[in-house]
Amino acid sequence: MYNAFLHGYLDEEVFMLPPPSYTKAKPNEVCLSKRSLYGLKQVSRQWNVEFCAKLQAYGFVQSAHDHCLFIKKTSTSILALLVYVDDVLVTGTHESEIKKVKQFLHEKHGSAHYHCLFTKKTSTSILALLVYVDDVLVTGTHESEIKKVKQFLHDTFTIKDMEYAKYFLGLKIARGSDGTYVNQRKYVLDILQDFGLLGAKPIVTSLPKGQKFSSTVSYLDEPEKYCKLVGRLLYLNLTRPDISYVVQQLSQYVHSHTQDHWQATLHVLKYLKGTPSRGLFFSSNNNLSLEAFCDADWAACKESCKSLTVSRSSAEAEYRSLAFTVCELQWISYILQDFQVSPPLPIPLWCNNMAALHITINSVFHKTYKAPTD
């Protein structure tokens, strides 16, 4: 979107000095701003409200489960937009629908709520938009619907159409006849370059075997470097489940890290050097069934006092893990339903603790068992 934040309308009274080039201003005269201006604290919120309202006027429905996703459905098509600030990704089943949406965005100007997922459904199609600030992804069942909404957005806000999505928020999207592959190769290479490890020798493990962090080792002279690197690794974790555990461990020490922690993060970078293109593959033949596995590392750290609700047994810890996994599965199933996809039920959830399983299936145990709250 071009000049996205200028499209919003202000609800508050905001006064400003006249521009230097405005010669008709009287002494001590100020201007009342009716529209959003860059630099005001409320501009991103007002842009979101305006953008959501226009999408809903076009027929999109905002997802109740992901506020960046907008969907328009019919019985024969689906159109979706993914929005990030003023960047919009559009996809759908018909090219003509995609063009209509693009034309709409090009010509015109969201929901009184701060949501990012919008859907537009009919008996034969669905159209979805996922919004992140001014970045928008659009998808749908008909190309014609996608084109319509893109045209609508262009007419309303004047957008930059990136055609088929190749990059979105640092994620590379590659399509093929067998499915879609998502990775963050460029993001990995940028991290390696920023930390001077682009020419490092690759290693095959994300963390040295038997790695233990010592509190007696000297602290870093530049602690902000560690925080910055861990933050970037956390974002990379979106498409790299192979580094999930080690990044989770390293992120626990952002307020108190030593040379051991720093060397461990560099070890992760050397591992990434050998696997920069690794990511997630979504097969076109996938039946979209859900399956989950959960586990708990009970009493792994007895002295941190991080948990406000302490599990007093491995069974209780595993039971909490089950409960939180069920919440995640429920959210994912809601998102799929927004796209008119109903995963096969029941959804398999695997746990390796028999005591926890007995608690879940027994209608009497749960009455005396404390529910998970943290």
Strand content: 15-25%
Stretches where pLDDT falls below 50 for ≥5 residues? 109-115
H/E element order: EEHEEHEEHEEEHHHHEEHEH
Helical residue percent? 25-40%
Biggest beta sheet attributes: 4 strands, mixed
- The averaged pLDDT comes out at 82
The value of Rg in angstroms is 25 Å
Shape: globular
Identify the quaternary structure here: single chain
Number of helices: 9
Number of strands: 12
What structural class do the secondary elements suggest? alpha+beta
Tally of separate domains: 3
Distance between the termini: 40 Å
Topology at a glance:
Layout: E1 9-16, E2 31-35, H1 43-58, E3 61-63, E4 69-94, H2 96-107, E5 117-121, E6 124-142, H3 143-157, E7 167-168, E8 171-176, E9 179-183, H4 185-194, H5 223-236, H6 244-250, H7 259-274, E10 279-283, E11 292-293, H8 314-338, E12 349-350, H9 354-361
